[in-house]
Amino acid sequence: MHVLITGGAGFIGSHLAERHLANGDQVYIVDNLSTGSLSNIDAFRGHPAFRFDEADILHWSGMDKAVAWADRIYHMAAVVGVKKVLEDPVAVMATNMTGTERILRAIHHGGWNPQVVIASTSEVYGFNAKSSFAETDDIVLPSAGRLRWAYAVTKLADEFLAFSYARKYGLHIVVVRLFNTIGPNQVGHYGMVVPSFVKQAVCNAPLTVYGEGDQTRSFCDVRDTVVALDRLAGCPEAWGEVVNVGNDQEISIRDLAELIVQRTHSQSPLHFMSYRDAYGEEFEDVTHRRPELNKLRALTGFAPEWSLRDTLDDLIKRECTKNLRVA
Ligand SMILES: NC(=O)c1ccc[n+]([C@@H]2O[C@H](COP(=O)([O-])OP(=O)(O)OC[C@H]3O[C@@H](n4cnc5c(N)ncnc54)[C@H](O)[C@@H]3O)[C@@H](O)[C@H]2O)c1
For residue 76, how far is its CA from the centre of ligand 1 (angstroms)? Predict the structure, then answer.
């Protein structure tokens, strides 16, 4: 199979590339390396079935040819991370919406019909006060002007673009609402909590917890996530659908910080910081974000293999090894 991955040098994209190369597929990645990195794809760069273009999906001249070549496309390229979204909302709007439209238009204009996975996010559920979210639940977003929600709005627009192309032109597209995903290759610079905590704990530095730490999240190991995405892409019943992807085990951010300190045998204290100090006035957080996974299970039989504890132990081991190499 020919697999095109936009944003393939990023966290999730690089794991998709690894999975498909291991399956004997040909993999073509495009990435502008804005948050992705060459180190995520170093291991594949000499591989005969691997190709990488450093380009921006908004201007990439190779898009039509790559889309024609592909049997499957994972569209992962996006501006992500709370910090980036607040710093540059214009880039968020352009990349996340125009980039997606460009890919879908190229597929349709070429007359192609690859399997397509469009990455959306649990953020689209917005302020819905439920403690867990099913795909049929309402989307509740605050009214105009709160730029913190720019990311959710662009991803919701992507969902509607995908449904429009799927319904009008019969394209084989599945939209995945990804919940918090963690694992190797994820970096903390852009506001991702687990890599930040692990790094802080390994160095015995204070772990910065925003608010009181009562907010809960559900973390899915990326090595489970890519199994779900692979199965959904190839599942005709999933085409034209939106599907939650994640793990439904929930933990508060304070308990997560304490667990990481405990697993690291670290001396790190917890340092509580208000959202206002961390992100300025613009920021509003969501109290709970747990996926309901009935649809994913029914379509794919998916069951995560990685427990949170196993993923954390793996990440802690990797961080310690990295520090030893530097020292
Ligand atoms: N990691 C999560 O927990 C999570 C949760 C919800 C949704 N998602 C979605 O999953 C996808 C992958 O996220 P990730 O966590 O791997 O983030 P990531 O930042 O590691 O990956 C995104 C990749 O896209 C690339 N990119 C950004 N703009 C680009 C452009 N204009 N042209 C080409 N490449 C560009 C970046 O360099 C990066 O490699 C994103 O669409 C994101 O919105 C991720």
Answer: 5
Cβ 291 under 6 angstroms from ligand 1: no
Amino acid type, 184? P
Q: Pull the structure tokens for residue 163.
A: 């449904």
* Confidence tier at 282 by pLDDT (50, 70, 90): low
Nearest to 160, CA basis, from 168, 123, 187: 168
Q: Which of 187, 207, 181, 221 is nearest to 264 (CA)?
A: 207
How do residues 79-114 score in pLDDT, each as one tens digit?
Answer: 987 778 888 889 999 999 999 999 999 999 999 999
Q: What is the pTM of this model?
A: 0.96
Q: What is the pLDDT of residues 43-69, one digit of tens each?
A: 999 999 999 999 999 999 999 999 999
pLDDT in tens, 67-80: 999 999 999 999 98
Distance CA 149, CA 204 (A): 34
The class level of CATH for 2-183+219-249+287-305 reads alpha beta
Pocket test for ligand 1, best of 5, 6, 12, 218 (most atoms within 8 A of CB): 12
**79 Cα–ligand 1 center, Å:** 6
Determine the Cα–Cα distance for residues 241 and 162; give it in Å rounded to an integer: 9
How remote is the C-alpha of 45 from its chain's centroid?
Answer: 23
